[in-house]
TrEMBL record, chain A:
Gene name of this polypeptide: EMC2
DNA-binding found in the keyword field: no
Family that this chain belongs to: Belongs to the EMC2 family.
GO cellular component terms attached to this protein's record: EMC complex
Annotated protein name in UniProt: ER membrane protein complex subunit 2
Organism (species): Dissophora globulifera
Residue ranges occupied by any EMC2 TPR-like domain in the UniProt entry: 80-203
InterPro entries from the UniProt entry: EMC2-like (IPR039856), TPR-like_helical_dom_sf (IPR011990), TPR_EMC2 (IPR055217)
UniProtKB/TrEMBL annotation, chain B:
Pfam families: MMgT
Species: Dissophora globulifera
Bilayer topology: Multi-pass membrane protein
Places the protein is found: Endoplasmic reticulum membrane
Gene field: MMGT1
Name under which the protein is recorded: Membrane magnesium transporter 1
TrEMBL record, chain C:
Protein name: ER membrane protein complex subunit 3
Membrane-topology descriptor: Multi-pass membrane protein
Annotated region (Disordered), positions in chain: 282-331
The keyword Transmembrane helix is assigned to this record: yes
GO cellular component, one term: EMC complex
Composition bias, Low complexity: 289-322
Family, as annotated: Belongs to the EMC3 family.
Assigned keywords, A-Z: Membrane, Transmembrane, Transmembrane helix
Length: 293, 113, 331
């Protein structure tokens, strides 16, 4: 029991989306009543398990958790948002919308309800309105990096959803730029987190600004030593840049620097792959592939 | 995330003993002083055994605390950040939508421990 | 040697144990109880926390945009930084984030009518009352009932200056300063019971003596709770704040942190010596100094070259000459 509570706490802290793990560990806790022994954490666990149960389709478990929370905190906006989520999950979208509107009528600044409204619009199949609502929300709450991340994802999804050719060209030009803008805001709000730099670097690469992407990938590896995805990014960029004609821009990376970085990335990738427990044949194959890239 | 150490019983025992010694030496000092007052004697400093007991209690406390305390965490932010998985990028807890296939996939599966 | 023995000779006085039973403990118990009651009354008086206003939140967050850009703009590439700089300076000037765009400067005469200001002042006064009234009452009670005798002996020695303060009501000349009256026991308790209150009431308790001290020194200010108020208690003109922030942003130069990230990465993994970074810094400083003071072509040539090998050799030569020039200019 102690271990389950610890794992749930870790998942709350790292914010990873693992509803199957949460339900697997949380269901026995809730059903046996052992969750009450956690005192203050019990309500957080109830909330966590409720959301995970909704994701996994276990509506009875979710209902049970939400009832427990309602009994303890009647009328709380946070509990009502959970009820709204419950309605969203089963498909009663208008009713969910009513709940969120009611919460916002009472307290304009309730961020939870505002965010749920955004996702409700998306679930209803209105991505453009969802983006509009999110932009309006971010205009008011500038410091919410989660919101900026979500907006970046919205733009990238838009990209994937355009099927007409001309629209695609426009989309590629515009959406990547918009997503890059959002990632820049996220980086400004959380400068030490290499994962956001990685996403920004990959967006830049997709936009074909390879020089800039290379610098960002270097930053990722600088922030997190031997980050494999970052090293691969470096290799991709350096191979493109080395094949292209040397740029006349004085601020661009010089040829010798490119070669040095390329060599470094290759070496680190070989070191990372060579140090594992894989069979020797796997190691040699991967080494050959990395060196030829 | 910091892994909880198994409770160090020896450490706790050392702390308890240290506290007992401290308490005992304090009480002995009090008794000693009241004895001196009653006998109207000179105060020549505390008797040696009380001092030794006090120093022993400090040593035991030090030992106990060191054993009971958690492991040190790294000082460089880098090592903390390295533990952050890329899954944290896509997880935005306030922005979960439920229109994914999770509900269908897991509906008839009993998630056992 | 003789002086030492005089000081160490403690005055041994035997106090009536009734003093301990009927003064020491009751004062402590009364203070604890009063603190708990005060905490609960403060909670009741404060009522529900004020509802946040959307527009005010937007205003404060808008201001933060400028601050964040200034603080972390070095992580962004130049075009991104410049675009944001242009937009934000424009927005601050036009007052897009202001709560009340047409408000302008409020005439000072109407200050009392501004409901937010009055409310803030009332809140502050309530807090002050709750802090000061119990203190005065208890001090009066102690002075009335428990004066004229020594209560406790402090375990640490003090200087003579404290005698008048701690032994008020007992006018003797020879008694040790360590014997003190009940009022000083009250003061000891005032500071010492903070941790007891934290244990009983949780960390956010309203009986915090530190806040008492602050409240006493800023009497009559409703400033703490209302974000719109400045230190003088007048409603701040947000427009002026935005304008000053805008000027700060306009002054910010963009220093791209990623300009030499490849070199930094190579140095980090040990492929290049750390001195390369120092040389680059020197070359850049030389380039900046010489471009601002518009000197010879040789120095500006150093500024434009970015590759490390060239920079090392040229920088070493130019740095020596430029530093001499700088020295002469400053002298």
């Amino acid at each position: 029991m102690v271990n389950a509570a610890k794992v749930l706490q870790d998942l709350r802290a790292s914010a990873e989306r693992k509803p199957d793990v949460v339900v697997r560990l949380g269901k026995p806790l809730v059903e046996s009543g052992a969750v009450k022994k956690l005192d203050a954490d019990a309500w957080l666990v109830y909330e966590q398990v409720a959301i995970a149960a909704l994701e996994v389709g276990d509506d009875t478990l979710a209902h049970r958790c939400i009832e427990a929370l309602e009994a303890k905190f009647p009328g709380s906006a946070r509990v009502r948002r959970l009820q709204g989520m419950q309605l969203e999950a089963v498909g009663r979208l208008e009713d969910a919308g009513e709940i969120y509107k009611a919460i916002l009528r009472e307290d304009e600044t309730n961020v939870l309800a505002a965010k749920r409204q955004v996702m409700l619009l998306r679930t209803m199949g209105l991505p453009a309105e969802a983006i509009g609502a999110l932009v309006k929300y971010l205009d008011i709450n500038y410091t919410d990096f989660e919101g900026w991340l979500q907006l970046a994802d919205f733009y990238l999804e838009e990209l994937m959803n355009t099927f007409v050719f001309l629209d695609q060209l426009l989309a590629a030009f515009l959406r990547y730029a918009q997503a890059a803008f959002c990632m820049e805001e996220v980086i400004m709000l959380q400068p030490q987190n290499h994962v956001f730099h990685l996403k920004y670097a990959e967006i830049l690469y997709s936009q074909d600004s390879i020089g800039l992407a290379l610098k960002q990938f270097c930053r990722v590896v600088e922030l997190c030593k031997d980050h494999v995805r970052g090293l691969y990014g470096i290799k991709l960029c350096t191979s493109r840049l080395l094949k292209a004609a040397p740029s006349r821009n004085p601020a661009a990376t010089s040829q010798e620097d490119l070669k040095a970085i390329d060599l470094l990335a290759t070496e680190r990738l070989l070191a990372v792959y060579g140090s594992g427990n894989a069979a020797a044949s796997v190691k040699t194959t991967s080494a050959k592939w990395i060196e030829s890239a | 995330m910091a892994v909880q150490q198994a409770p160090s019983y020896l450490g706790r025992l050392a702390c308890v003993l240290g506290f007992l010694f401290l308490f005992h030496s304090g009480y002995s000092t009090f008794e000693h002083l009241s004895y001196l007052k009653a006998v109207d004697g000179h105060e020549s400093g505390l008797p040696l055994d009380i001092t030794i007991e006090l120093i022993m209690s400090v040593a035991l406390f030090g030992l106990g605390i060191v054993m009971v305390a958690d492991d040190f965490k790294e000082i460089l932010m880098e090592t903390e950040m390295a533990k952050q998985s890329i899954e944290s990028l896509d997880a935005r807890p306030s922005f979960y939508a439920f229109d994914h296939r999770g509900r269908a996939v897991f509906r008839n599966v009993v998630l056992k421990n | 040697m003789g002086a030492w023995t005089v000081i160490q000779e403690r005055q041994a006085m035997l106090l009536d144990p009734a003093i301990r039973d009927w003064v020491l403990l009751p004062i402590m118990v009364v203070m604890i109880l009063v603190g708990v009651v005060r905490h609960h009354i403060t909670v009741l008086l404060n009522g529900t926390p004020k509802k946040a206003d959307l527009k005010s939140a937007r205003e404060t967050k808008g201001l933060q945009r400028g601050a964040v850009l200034r603080a972390y703009g070095s992580h962004l590439p130049e075009h991104a930084f410049e675009a944001r700089k242009a937009y934000i300076t424009d927005a601050f000037e036009k007052g897009t984030y202001l709560k009340d765009p047409k408000g302008g400067n409020k005439p000072k005469g109407n200050v009392m009518q501004d409901p937010a200001y009055v409310e803030g002042m009332m809140d502050g006064m309530k807090k002050n009352m709750m802090n000061i009234v119990p203190q005065t009452v208890i001090m009066g009670w102690i002075n009335f009932f428990f004066s004229g005798f020594v209560l406790i002996k402090l375990p640490f020695p003090l200087t003579i200056r404290f005698k008048s303060m701690l032994q008020r009501g007992i006018e003797t000349q020879d008694m040790d300063v360590t014997w003190v009256s009940s009022l000083s026991w009250y003061f000891l308790n005032l500071f010492g019971l903070q941790s007891v209150f934290t244990l009983l009431l949780g960390s956010g308790h309203a009986a915090d003596a530190m806040r008492d001290m602050q409240a006493m020194s800023t009497m009559g200010m409703g400033a703490a709770t209302n974000p719109q108020m400045g230190p003088t208690g007048q409603p701040q003109d947000m427009h002026k704040i935005f304008l000053s922030e805008k000027e700060n942003i306009e002054l910010t130069e963009h220093e791209w942190g990623l300009e030499n990230v490849e070199i930094r990465l190579l140095v980090k993994y040990g492929k290049l010596p750390r001195s390369i970074l120092e040389d680059q810094k020197k070359a850049k400083a030389v380039g900046n100094a010489s471009s601002s003071s518009s000197s010879s072509a040789a120095s500006s040539h150093v500024a434009s070259s970015t590759s490390p090998s060239q920079a090392t050799m040229a920088a070493a030569a130019a740095a020596a000459s430029a530093s001499k020039k700088k020295g002469r200019r400053q002298a």
